[in-house]
TrEMBL record:
PROSITE patterns: PROKAR_LIPOPROTEIN (PS51257). CDD domains: cpPDZ_Deg_HtrA-like, M48C_Oma1_like. Its cofactor is Zn(2+). SUPFAM superfamilies: PDZ domain-like (SSF50156). It comes from the Bacteria. The keyword Metal-binding applies. This is Peptidase M48 domain-containing protein. Binds 1 zinc ion per subunit. Belongs to the peptidase M48 family.
Length: 332
């Protein structure tokens, strides 16, 4: 921020010259060791919180990606692991990441999703996966290629011992999940990735609600919204990323995605009433997004449609206008 007011400018100059501004009161004193200990405590606590969020995002998100692999136009192979190293973390937090999360120079397994190929193969936190003698880093091309096989033997280092494990990779939707440290309650899709803020992770009261949010963002990617909106942007000069019908479509398709993954849609529409509590001015602001009441009612209606299908043993597939829709679309 730039200080423009002349008085503030003078004050700022005085502060810089004097080292510290003189206060009118005597401040309580604290000790250096107490300050250092509190710094370590806050960094550790913050990293543990982030790690818990990324674990939950992996656990819930992976279920949504796996259950909808046949509906998603693009897919990828997956083991269900998060790999990290010091470099995964911002520079200021690397020492803390080493201390608190066990991040090292070599990329190693940070999280194993439950019921995943990695979990079934007995892979553990701290394991270093080797391909051609090299540790596999996040997003490794070598691992991506190796995962095309139905079954693959991985060389793993665990506590300085080398072992071989057999894994059977699974096919999941192409989108990848990311966590963004931010207090804003938000989530985004860009055609390839799904980003969820820590604010959203905290705001979602249940795993069902989080699955609904992930389903919504996944639908933006799978339904080709990103490409369509880029088209709209060029044609009409809209300043927004998505338009209203696409938001409603993502709510609708996303609800199918979450139910197909085994999550319970009953009551998830309450998310919009709670969001109204913390953001009352947005309840009826409808420039770019549908209003909260609109979304609340349509999600409840979609849930009734899904419950009817389940009661009748019908396939849990959204009502496409064109039954061949999936074959024509690509994401991104
Ligand atoms: Zn959206």
């Amino acid at each position: 921020m730039e200080i423009r007011h002349p008085i503030l400018t003078t004050l700022a100059a005085a502060m810089m010259l004097g080292g510290c501004a003189s206060t009118a009161t005597r401040l309580p004193t604290i000790s250096e060791p107490a300050l250092r200990a509190e710094s370590i405590l806050q960094e550790n606590k913050a990293l543990a919180t982030q790690a818990a969020h990324s674990e939950r995002l992996l656990r819930i998100g992976r279920r949504v990606m796996l259950a909808n692999a046949t509906l998603c136009p693009k897919s990828r192979r997956d083991l269900g692991v998060l790999i990290h190293s010091e470099e995964t973390y911002p520079k200021e937090l690397r020492i803390a990441a080493r201390r608190q999360l066990g991040a090292g120079e070599k990329p190693s397994i940070f999280r194993v999703a439950p019921d995943s190929p990695a979990a079934r193969a007995g892979l553990e936190r701290g394991d270093v996966i080797l391909i051609d003698g090299l540790p596999v880093a996040p997003g490794s091309k070598a691992l991506r290629e190796a995962m095309e096989a139905d079954q693959l033997e991985l060389t793993v280092t665990r506590n300085a011992q080398q072992l071989t494990v057999t894994v059977e990779p699974e096919t999941v939707c192409h989108s990848r999940l990311r966590l963004r440290p931010s207090a804003a309650i938000n989530a985004f899709a860009n055609g390839r990735n799904i980003t969820v803020t820590t604010g959203m992770m905290e705001f979602t009261e249940s795993d069902d609600e989080l699955a609904m949010i992930i389903g919504h963002e996944l639908a933006h990617n799978t339904m080709g919204h990103i490409r369509k909106v880029v088209g709209n942007l060029i044609l009409s000069g809209f300043a927004t990323r998505y338009t209203r019908p696409f938001e409603l479509e993502s709510d609708y398709v996303g609800l199918y995605y979450m139910v197909r993954a085994g999550f319970d849609p009953d009551g998830v529409e309450a998310f919009w009433r709670r969001l109204a509590d913390v953001d009352p001015r947005s309840v009826n602001r409808a420039k770019t997004h549908p209003t909260f009441p609109d979304r609340y009612l349509r999600i409840a209606a979609a849930r009734d449609e899904i419950n009817d299908k389940m009661a009748n043993g019908a396939a849990l597939i959204p009502n496409f206008k064109d039954p061949n829709f999936r074959d024509k679309e690509t994401d991104g």
